[in-house]
Amino acid sequence: MPEPPGGPAREPDRVANPAFEIADLAVSYGPRVALRGVHLTVRRHEVTALIGPSGCGKTTFLRCLNRMNDLVPGARVSGRVDFEGEPIYAPTARPIEIRRRVGMVFQRPNPFPKSIYDNVAIAPRLAGLRRGLNELVEESLTRAALWEEVKDKLRESAFSLSGGQQQRLCIARAIAVRPEVLLMDEPASALDPVATYAIEELIGQLKRDYTIVIVTHNMQQAARISDRTAFFTVEGTDTERAGVLVEVGPTAKIFANPSERRKEDSISGRFG
């Protein structure tokens, strides 16, 4: 299958002890190729934004980082994805453990139909934790910048919260199992501007303790919150179109000096 002009995008420098190293990653859903030829390094304790037009494979790529695509019938992943130096698609790798270490926050808030407390406590309970649960719930809600708003109503339904609060609750739920990485798939797209600002502020705080990879269609948001940006687009003929990585680098450089017209068009809002 042909590569994009000039070959797949690669970063010129090597990074010591990266969180992820991805090489020649390709994903298919049945006969349809969704993503091909991706080479990318994700650095620790940075925010990496994935941008590009709709249908270019951003979410598909994100879901490869904790093997969520395993849950999609007909999905096939090839290439290499190393997390902390270990190949996560090796036969001996344990997907459940990978998903504990690499948490996921989805596009729309998806709290469980339980209390605020139980939403945060459920995963640690399932993992067998009994002691220190109250402290863990408080710590997780504090890290998600939600504790002060809910500390007096922990037994109330999670659905009593606003949309922005529900999304921060979902972040607290992900944090409660002590992951090393947080994947975020457009976490503010369903929120109003005030709630979006709160999520962006929270991301800036969380990167001190976590590596964050975020999909966003909001170019201004990517410019505000990320340290590095990976730009994806779609290449190929009508019958063999697939998402490809065009460029990756420091966010300031990607936005200040777009190297290709199609990327400049996307960043300036002309398409995607």
Q: What portion of residues belong to β-strands?
A: 25-35%
Q: Helix tally? A: 10
Shape: globular
- The N- to C-terminal Cα distance equals 25 Å
Main beta-sheet strand count, sense and barrel state: 6 strands, mixed
CATH architecture of one domain: 3-Layer(aba) Sandwich
Which structural class should the secondary elements be placed in? alpha/beta
Could you tell me the radius of gyration in angstroms? 19 Å
Average residue pLDDT? 89
Q: What is CATH's topology name of one domain?
A: Rossmann fold
Percent helix: 25-40%
> What is the succession of H and E elements?
EEEHEEHEHHHHEHEHEEHH
Low-confidence stretches: 1-7, 268-272
**CATH-level-4 superfamily name of one domain:** P-loop containing nucleotide triphosphate hydrolases
> In order across it, which strands form the biggest sheet?
6-7-8-3-9-10
CATH class of one domain: Alpha Beta
Number of strands: 10
